[in-house]
Amino acid sequence: MRTSRMLLWTALGLGLAVIYFPLVVVLLNSFNADTTFGFPPSSFTLEWWSRASSNEGALHALWTSVEAGLAATAIALVLGTMAAFALQRYRFFGRNPVSLLIILPIALPGIVTGIALNNAFRTVLGIDLGLLTAIVAHATFCIVVVFNNVVARLRRMGGNLEEASMDLGATGFTTFRLVTFPMLRSALLAGGLLAFALSFDEIIVTTFTLGTGMETLPIWIYNNLFRPNQAPIVNVVAAVLIVVSTVPVYLAQRLSGDTASGGRL
């Protein structure tokens, strides 16, 4: 038993090291004074952070990512919540296939989704690629995250409290406002945070659906990755991206695990 436990802990440690050691290297290199990024760093500096904070390309790409992420998250919250209520609270013919179709976009390879949306926008609909097309593209897979969170919370909630509220004379809107929404609030927030993080990090689908001359932060990193004069700044931006991606996921995990309070904040 003790040997098995040691083997499991060793495997866990090796797995975490493979995943997180490269991220630690990126964080350290963002402070590395050596432009060749010798490891371990001989000295540290904040110069690259200062340059990154005034880099117009990186800042513009950051704002584009934030715009796309917030808009895609808003769309996903509305449509994902509506789909979750429809599929969880009602029984109808084709319910399971519809549920599969909603979840499917998150499982498709990004390049397939990107090419399909690119062809749909440009060939079928005749729409020029731009920020709006990227937002719609991001919303297709962000909806899945919100949908899964809301469906899981609705299953735990049941319908007894809502039925009791209606029996006491409350209207449907009043019941939703005073009973359903408070219990659903943390699931919506968790789903929104995960959707934003997913949109903010996305690069493959964005490459096929964003307009020419526009860049999100991940695309800016990729385009400048092999430019020696931009390498220090890329490390800083990558470090920021690691933090920005980690915080929403951590908060969403905490909120999703809040079952003791019935989903209340």
What would the average pLDDT be, to the nearest integer? 83
- Low-confidence segments, given as residue ranges, are 259-265
Write down the overall geometry. globular
Strand content: under 5%
| Largest sheet features | none
The total tally of domains equals 2
The first-to-last residue Cα distance is 41 Å
Count of helices? 11
**For the CA atoms, what is the radius of gyration?**
22 Å
The topology string of helices and strands comes to HHHHHHHHHHH
Range of helix content:
over 70%
User: Would you state the CATH class of the largest domain?
Assistant: Mainly Alpha
As for the CATH topology of the largest domain, it is MetI-like fold
Tell how many strands the DSSP assignment holds.
Answer: 0
Q: Which structural class do you get from the secondary structure elements?
A: mainly alpha
CATH level-four homologous superfamily name of the largest domain: MetI-like
Specify the CATH architecture of the largest domain. Answer: Orthogonal Bundle
